[in-house]
Amino acid sequence: MSGKSTKEITRDYFDSLMLEMRLIDSAVPDTGLKLYGQRFETPVMTAALSHLGTFNPEMPDGMIQYALGATAVSVGGHLIPYIRKGGEEAVAGRIREMTEELRGAMAYTGVKNLSEFDASVLHRV
Domain FMN-dependent dehydrogenase, which positions (predicted)? Predict the structure, then answer.
């Protein structure tokens, strides 16, 4: 890493660009975005991840962190409707339901703890 701050890296990059100003017949651009029925006035973007190591040299690759975050959202994605309907209380209720479903599956299969769950309890119908 170069040891430069994010601000310096960004400034160097923007200084390397040359933009031509065109004011005649121009219109104010709409940078808004509609996502899942909600309007955002600026584009939804990820932060620059390429130089996270500048701040913490032991930080794993930023793109890996981003991918892990996306995976985590995917894992919990089915809880989003519960978040929207009733917030924390609804999510806690759904997690309790899932826990009861798991307890039932464990009882039906004779599994006493999660470490005993393996492919032997699964059968195709």
Answer: 66-123
Closest CA to 63 of 51, 80, 79: 51
Rounded Cα distance, 40 and 33, in Å: 5
Coil/strand/helix, residue 35: strand
pLDDT in tens, the chain (125 residues): 567 887 888 888 878 877 676 767 767 767 777 777 888 777 656 666 666 667 777 766 767 777 777 777 776 778 878 888 888 888 889 888 988 888 888 888 888 887 877 777 777 66
Whether the CA torsion 23, 26, 31, 32 is positive or negative: it is positive
The structural domains of the chain, with segments of one domain joined by +, span 1-53, 60-125
Q: Which amino acid is at 1?
A: M
113 burial level (CB within 10 Å; 0-12, 13-18, 19+): exposed
3-class secondary structure per residue, 103-123: HHHHHHHCCCCHHHCCHHHCC
